[in-house]
Amino acid sequence: MVNALATETSLPMMLNLAPAKRVMVFAPHPDDECIGCGGALALLAQNPEVQISVVLVTNGDGGEHSPDVNMGPRRLLEMQAALKVLGVSELKTMDRLDGRFELDDQFETEAQQLLQAFQPNWVFLPGPMDYHKDHLLVSKGVESACKLVGSVKQLVYFETWTPLPATHVLDITSVMDLKCRALQAHHSALKYGDYERGVKGLNAYRGLYLGFDRFAEAFVVQTRAEFENPSSWLTQLKGLGLSLKSRLGART
Ligand SMILES: [Zn+2]
Predict the structure, then answer these.
(1) pLDDT for 162-190, tens place per residue?
(2) Which pTM value belongs to this model?
(3) Which end of the chain lies in a sparser environment, N or C, as judged by fewer CB atoms within 10 Å?
């Protein structure tokens, strides 16, 4: 589809899902999989030849400011229900601390083991410049682990707390209702914010690239050659993101 805007600006490309065969998703917390790439997962799950495995990194217990021993198990059930709506059944957990995730060698080793076992050719992961520290560190750790696993041909960074300088967009209009239904399964998270409204707004904004009345998810896509290249534009942007984060941190 040609958008009038496209003649005047350089817009993100369409994400072609056809090469995705084995897809692994790393979600720092329950709900990130819906917000960041719920539409992509719903579309991928419609193809019976695509295998999808979602990894929940933290225990989702509410973080250090509001820890609740019942919260983690409850949010895990909510995430299972959300994935069921999207058509995804495989969910693995890494049980790291919510809100105080530590990036260490053990995490990278465990992530590498999960990748080796599943052999994904695509990996979805949080954006590398996210405002949420857990997201930022999970992104970094997963990316390092992916460099050590040859099956991974493409990284697909999704946006949650921070919009990305997107390279690709995916038309999710046909599954937007499904994505919203999946998000509604995250009852605990929805008590802290109207994520459905936020996600609809973000996906409507991204849909503007495609024309009228569209919803889209936006991503930064990196091929293996790109994510292995230390001087790639994304690596430079990450440096910018980290310096922005330290400036924001310095305000408080
Ligand atoms: Zn999160």
Answers:
(1) 999 999 999 999 999 999 999 999 999 99
(2) 0.92
(3) C
